[in-house]
Amino acid sequence: MTIRLERQDGVATVTLDRPEKHNALGLSDAQALAGIWRGLRTDRSVRAAVVTGAGGRAFCTGIDRDAVAHDGAVPQPHAPFAVEDPLLSIGPKSNDLWIPVIAAVEGMACGGAFYLLSEAEFLIATEESTFFDPHTSYGMVSAYEAMDMAQRMPFGEVARMALMGTAERISGRRAYETGLVSELTPVGGTLDAALSCARVLASYPLSAVQGTVRAIWAAREAARNHARALAPPLIALGNLSPEQQAERFTGRRGDGPPRMR
């Protein structure tokens, strides 16, 4: 299993378990994640959730390009008004789950990982955690990712992250300073800290907690939904072809280390 689900003390722990691939997601992983969130909607034993990545080196690095290439390219509509994105529905809110979800981030979190992080109620990370968005470096529009993270980060921060691509990474400390991360722990401590918070939430009356989650999200959904409606044509018009993206991806593997801030 590349996605693990454990339940204890009213808390579900969802672990991305492909540490050898930095917990990158293949097509089957994306489907499994969506299925887990949908399943938790009717699981009365679970009242809060934590999502994390195995291995310590990465929370998630988005889509596994090698796996997608092996499975075959995702067919795209013939008009720029819709886009087939295999990671678009991997988050809990996209699957209509309204229990609180906490993200425990160790190591790297980039690109498609933001679909998960943007749909968590809050993030816990370490100073050594790093966040970046590689899309522009590979000739791709950062649309959904940037739009979702713009709901969580100051405008200038998300603009710089989305535009600078692989040249820069945001440290856990900087993410904490800008409000993306709510707590910093020592390396290896994010899961325990997240579980501690989740157990508190699970001990409260379920309807009060879910109602509060829904209220918080209602305050941001109008802007988020309006922005997302613009994403497909921006992606269709701005992306390089898959072949050109692959060339840039291969060519940039030899680049020097990114700047950390």
From TrEMBL:
CDD domains: crotonase-like. InterPro entries: ClpP/crotonase-like_dom_sf, Enoyl-CoA_hydra/iso. Residues 241-261 are annotated as: Disordered. It comes from the Bacteria. Gene3D superfamilies: 2-enoyl-CoA Hydratase, Chain A, domain 1 (3.90.226.10). Transmembrane segments: none annotated. Residues 245-261 have a biased composition (Basic and acidic residues). PANTHER family: ENOYL-COA HYDRATASE (PTHR43802), IP11341P-RELATED (PTHR43802:SF1). Belongs to the enoyl-CoA hydratase/isomerase family. This is Enoyl-CoA hydratase/isomerase family protein.
